[in-house]
Automatic annotation (TrEMBL):
Organism: Iris pallida
SUPFAM superfamilies: Tubby C-terminal domain-like
Family designation: Belongs to the LOR family.
Gene3D superfamilies, per the entry: LURP1-related
Annotated protein name in UniProt: Protein LURP-one-related 6-like
Length: 206
């Protein structure tokens, strides 16, 4: 992809790069700033960070920040009686404006039976999904750090678990690499990874 016409923003086009980008997700100890993780670029500079309940005081609530520490997204798990009766848990990501959540930008459906391999985690871009029921899907194993995010046409947006990335996971449980394809929104990708981290009880959980 090249040029602004090929960008696919969800959060903002400023987080879309014209070339393939390799990022490193590094977990923080849960006793440090509420746990969570930081995301580094190829120069080992922090480009994103995610904090969980240690800072917010509630499980199922996450904040994604940029490299300067400014909040970008507020992500929360929906609750209530209807949610309890649903076959899916639902998460929603909201833009942060003036320090407060504003309009929703994506929603994620988490199957309650994550062990069922045929159940993909589906993501819709707000409002109501640009392509009907869902726009993106997560396939593979987050636990093994071998998964991908793809669009409805099967185009891979981001991937963890091939080549160098797989070797990095084997070397340490505290970091892994994610490769984001050109034009796609890196903040959106990290937001999805933050939800997956929480679902699987890793660094963002209480």
């Amino acid at each position: 992809m090249g040029g602004s016409s090929n960008l696919v923003p969800v959060v903002s086009k400023i987080f879309c790069a014209s070339s393939q980008t390799a990022l490193t997700v590094r977990k923080r100890p849960q006793v440090v700033n509420g746990g969570g993780f930081v995301v580094l670029n190829g120069r080992n500079s922090v480009v994103f960070s995610v904090v969980g309940c240690g800072v917010l005081g509630a499980n199922g609530e996450l904040i994604l920040k940029d490299g300067d520490g400014a909040p970008i997204l507020y992500i929360r798990k929906k609750g209530g009686m209807l949610q309890a009766l649903s076959a899916h848990n639902r998460w929603r990501g909201y833009l942060m404006e003036f320090g407060r959540p504003s309009k929703p930008v994506f929603s994620l459906r988490e199957p309650r039976q994550l062990a069922v391999s045929s159940h993909r985690i589906k993501i819709s871009v707000e409002p109501k999904g640009r392509n009907g029921d869902w726009d993106y899907a997560v396939e593979g194993s987050f636990d093994e750090k071998a998964f991908s995010i793809a669009d409805r046409k099967g185009n891979v947006v981001a991937k963890v678990g091939s080549g160098e990335e797989k070797a990095a996971v084997a070397a340490s449980k505290d970091f892994y690499r994610v490769v984001v394809q050109p034009g796609y929104d890196q903040a959106f990708v990290v937001g999805v990874i933050a939800v997956l981290d929480n679902i699987h009880g890793e660094s963002t959980t209480c």
